[in-house]
Amino acid sequence: MADRHTGMVEKRGAGLWLTHAGLILGVLFIFFPIWLAFVASTVTQPEIVHPPMPLLPGDQFLENYRKALVSGINAPVARMLANSAVMAIGIAVGKIVISILSAFAIVYFRFPGRKLFFWLIFVTLMLPVEVRIVPTYEVAARFDMLNSYHGLILPLIASATATFLFRQFFMTVPDELAEAARVDGARPMRFFIDILLPMSRTNMAALFVILFIYGWNQYLWPLLITTDPEMNTIVMGIKQMFPSGDDIADWPVIMATSILAMIPPVIVVISMQKLFIRGLVDSEK
Amino acid sequence: MEKRVIFKGIWLPLLLVAPQMLITAVFFFYPAGQAVWQSLFIPDPFGLSMQYVGLGNFEYLLSDPYYRASFLTTAVFSTLVTVVSMGVALYLAVLADRLIKGSGTYRTLLIWPYAVAPAVAGVLWMFMFNTRVGVITWYLGQLGYDWNHVLNGSEAMGLVVVASAWGRISYNFLFFLAGLQSIPRSVIEAAAIDGAHFWTRFRTIVFPLLSPTTFFLLVVNIVYAFFETFGVIHTITAGGPQQSTTILVYKVFADGFVGQDLGSSAAQSVILLLVVGALTVLQFKYVERKVHY
Question: Are residues A55 and A188 located together in one domain of the fold?
Answer without folding.
Answer: no
